[in-house]
């Protein structure tokens, strides 16, 4: 298994281009199933989760070709409606094929994804929404099965006990796009990725209004047409490099972003004196010797994203004073804390809060990545740590960050990928 070896302390300088959003492209690939024809997707991040979704589409009979950052998908010869455990277990977002398969074929058999390290991650809201649309859903031997669904537009309230669900909103929106009549989803998630999927479906003839608000209206369609669509930039990848910049850069220009998608992070950085400069789609950041600590509480969009809290916690280890980070969405998203403690951070966790005392000098150590965003946080910590950090289990980072070591070494970081056979 590959590892990263990072020599900390280099000053970064230059430009980083942000790739397309992983959390948009995965449901959009699944939504391409709704059309019986071809879809061309541009600005696709070449990350491992995209390869897994490609394998799922190919398993059911679609043709998927990768040409640089473009995907050509042909869904004319889909001859299966099953997503097996072997593929779904690699990536939870495989469940996105549920909404589109039921939408197009009235049937699907998708393995239940199960929990994952960041929390239990149930799918009750997905099932509730699909059932409300008339899907005949049964749970059988670990699979969510639908055999003869005839979808009919309806009113659905989708919010759960942790707030709106991105995945359920998208899954139900996809199925409702192929239902007979109008659906209204209230309590919908407002994340930019929800808007991107709605824009994609509309680009192939769908009729979705209100995506990005808590109420989405969908006029179901019986047919869709071929489309070409460009994926929005990845706000979490951008946010991660923004933190790299304020931690370690003389000047770092983060290019191809949508700054409004990063508002909560940019506001926080301004508040603590790190003053990112926004110019159209670019954001310029630089390090500062002293900056203040602050508290964050993660919330659904437009609140501070849960996918950025680990990276922000690393920033807070370098800030002056105490900070509290509250995670309200997933119950187990502090897996990176013991690893940061091994690097010298001063952090205590209690329930869903991390209490951080800064600034601390971080020291290189051998650490292990536990999930995607935890891996990103460890890389950020290693960039500012004294000496060498070895991060193992970096397959997590490959799931969601395109060529991270290349992007960072291009701006001056000392980061290399090794596999144990090549290690010094
Ligand atoms: C999406 O996950 C993202 N994944 C996650 O990104 C992100 O952390 C999360 O949204 C929150 O923003 C993708 O887009 C592929 P949710 P999702 O349904 O859709 C509860 C990353 O690092 N819930 O919005 O699975 C759930 O347990 C990742 O890129 C139910 O109770 O998240 C959580 O507490 C990881 N029942 C809350 O809702 C359900 O049926 C929000 O989860 C569904 C969710």
UniProtKB/TrEMBL annotation:
It catalyses: phosphoenolpyruvate + UDP-N-acetyl-alpha-D-glucosamine = UDP-N-acetyl-3-O-(1-carboxyvinyl)-alpha-D-glucosamine + phosphate. The modification 2-(S-cysteinyl)pyruvic acid O-phosphothioketal is found at residue 116. Residues 7-408 form the Enolpyruvate transferase domain. Its EC number is 2.5.1.7. Phosphoenolpyruvate binds at residues 22-23. Signal peptide: none annotated. The active site is at residue 116. Pathway: Cell wall biogenesis; peptidoglycan biosynthesis. It is found in: Cytoplasm. Cell wall formation. Adds enolpyruvyl to UDP-N-acetylglucosamine. Belongs to the EPSP synthase family. MurA subfamily. This is UDP-N-acetylglucosamine 1-carboxyvinyltransferase. The lineage of its organism: Bacteria, Bacteria division TA06.
């Amino acid at each position: 298994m590959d590892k990263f070896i990072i020599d900390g302390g280099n000053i970064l300088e230059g430009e980083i281009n942000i790739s397309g959003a992983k959390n948009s492209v995965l449901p959009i690939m699944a939504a391409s199933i709704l059309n019986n024809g071809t879809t061309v997707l541009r600005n696709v991040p070449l990350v491992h989760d995209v390869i897994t979704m490609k394998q799922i589409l190919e398993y059911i009979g679609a043709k998927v070709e990768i040409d640089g950052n473009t995907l050509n998908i042909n869904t004319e010869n889909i001859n299966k409606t099953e997503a097996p455990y072997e593929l779904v277990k690699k990536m939870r977002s495989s469940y996105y094929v549920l909404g589109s398969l039921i939408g197009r074929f009235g049937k699907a058999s998708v393995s239940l994804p199960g929990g994952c390290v960041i929390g239990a991650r149930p799918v009750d809201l997905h099932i509730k929404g699909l059932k409300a649309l008339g899907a005949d859903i049964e749970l059988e031997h670990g699979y969510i099965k639908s055999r003869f669904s005839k979808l009919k537009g309806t009113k659905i309230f989708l919010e759960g006990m942790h707030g709106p669900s991105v995945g359920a909103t998208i899954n139900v929106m996809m199925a409702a796009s192929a239902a007979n009549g109008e659906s209204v989803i209230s309590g919908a998630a407002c994340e930019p990725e929800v808007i991107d999927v709605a824009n994609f479906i509309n680009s192939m003839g769908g009729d979705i209004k209100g995506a990005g608000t808590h109420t989405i209206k969908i006029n179901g369609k019986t047919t869709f047409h071929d489309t070409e669509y460009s994926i929005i930039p990845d706000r979490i990848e951008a946010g991660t490099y923004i933190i790299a910049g304020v931690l370690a850069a003389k000047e770092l220009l983060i290019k191809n972003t949508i700054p409004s998608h990063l508002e909560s992070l940019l506001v926080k950085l301004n508040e603590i004196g790190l003053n990112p400069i926004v110019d159209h789609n670019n954001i310029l950041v630089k390090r500062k010797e002293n900056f203040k600590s602050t508290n964050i509480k993660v919330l659904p969009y437009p609140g501070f994203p849960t996918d950025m809290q680990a990276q922000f916690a690393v920033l807070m280890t370098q800030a002056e004073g105490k900070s509290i980070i509250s995670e309200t969405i997933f119950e187990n998203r502090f897996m990176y804390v013991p690893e940061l403690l091994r690097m010298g951070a001063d952090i205590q966790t209690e329930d869903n809060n991390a209490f951080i005392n800064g600034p601390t000098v971080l020291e290189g150590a051998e650490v292990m990545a536990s999930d995607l965003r935890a891996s990103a946080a460890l890389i950020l910590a290693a960039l500012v740590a004294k000496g060498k950090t070895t991060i193992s289990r970096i397959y997590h980072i490959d799931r969601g960050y395109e060529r991270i070591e290349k992007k960072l070494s291009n701006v001056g970081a000392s980061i290399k990928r090794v596999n144990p056979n090549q290690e010094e």
